[in-house]
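Chain A, query sequence.
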Amino acid sequence: MSPDFDADFVIVGAGAAGCVLANRLSADPRHRVLLLEAGGEADSRWFKVPVGYRWTIGNPRWDWCHDGAPEPALDGRVLRHPRGKVMGGSTAINGMVAIRGHAADYDAWRARGLTGWGWDDVLPYFRRSEDHLFGDTPLHGSGGAWAVQGARMHWPVLDDLQAAAVASGLPLREDFNAGEHEGVGPIHVNQRDGRRWSAADGYLSAAVRRRPNLRIATGAHAERLLFDGQRASGVAWRDAQGQPRQAAAACAVVLAAGAFGSPMLMMRSGIGDAGHLAGHGVAPRHHLPGVGANLQDHLQIALRWRLEGAETLNQRMNSRLALASMALQWALKRRGPLTMAPCQLGLFARSSPEVDRADLGWNVLAFTRPAFDAPFDDFPGLTMISYDLRPESRGTLRLAGPEPDRAPDLRMNYLATERDRRVMIAGMRWSRRLMAAPAMARHRPQELWPGPEAQEDGALLAALRQRAGTIYHPVGSARMGPAEDEMAVVDSSLRVRGVPGLRVIDASVMPEIVSGNTASPTVMIAEKGAAMLLAEAR
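Chain A, predicted structure.
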């Protein structure tokens, strides 16, 4: 079958990485670029209203809605793992929190033998991406495509919690993205003037889309890679009408389908653990056992408190008049609760004095409800969501069958180590300590869940098993590694080992998860990956 399209670069996936790549590669008019996205355009108002993630997450039109396998350490519960199926990928449906992680995260990558991936190496690519509220500084960039702004809603009760954190010994921190982030302070978000700002908004503007050398195909479900001998030479997909299509890639096929999508496409194409592939009826082409291994995620646990004398979102969400006022405030001023990210105060701390840097993070919410899709409580409330920044537990992503539309077999393996259990329990105790501080006393906090009766480690571990959930940060399933790393999938230039013409440039290449949210680090990886591709194509 002759290809329907000829390009220099074929990019699979228009999420955080794919949008960056399409922009940067097509900026050189000599390169023909084809971008394939399985989803459609972000054409609903919920992609502009920041709190719209409440309606996009879980909607199969815009979310892959992957379910994991039952988790042994979470009482056999099945967790859902949202992933964006739309232009912009998960940046179109995520919480918009702009956190890079700690400088030591990247220095640890370099220490593994990954030359060019230390903090000083990657900082220029973070800066290149940004249009930051602090402007052009040694740490931040101005005029880039990735908007980073301050919150546009203020809850006074969070000032009291911030004071409690400072009294506990945590420093007040105005910028969590300067390399060191232990402390408490304001969260910065991927928004522009009160609207969500996805990677597609920033990198695939109307002007970029008009470039004659860039073609974007939506509704394009990639089924397998094409090969010329051992070299990856293109991609086969089905278009929005279900018709088979093929594209040839003269320079490279670039997988940017994320920690789930990229390894799945490799395995369906015969790249992965040979025994696993053969067991699912896929003819092995290249034995690469690390494909789908090393899967990591952040696990979170939410503790809830009832307050007195505090204004929180609960009261507004339970009043029709207040709801109308919030909608009007956003429509006229792009301010108010509809601009809120699912984190209104940032907090990073150490689980114990023995650790060398913060290993716990929090999303602090000025509201309470029993579950993500449950009604808000009818009294003032505050939620402390703590999560382990650098878990040791590793999971796997495997084929459930060879069919292109078959969902992956996801086994995250949360809480598999004693260290991970200990750190998560420490996070719960930290939350309680902050809520019991004198600065919060005037609000008379009453713990709603797991409740004051759960004091011993065993009781807190049982609570974790019952309620802990994903914070939606899957990474690492096609990790970078040096030549001696037998489980590495790509090298430090993001080339797939033993498969010429194939790159992976997305969150799946992280060897270890970063200490924070993953959207901005993924944008950085794509900026650096694009620069590598352009340098080689000269």
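Residues 372 and 396 are 26 Å apart (CA to CA). The first strand starts at residue 5 and ends at 12.
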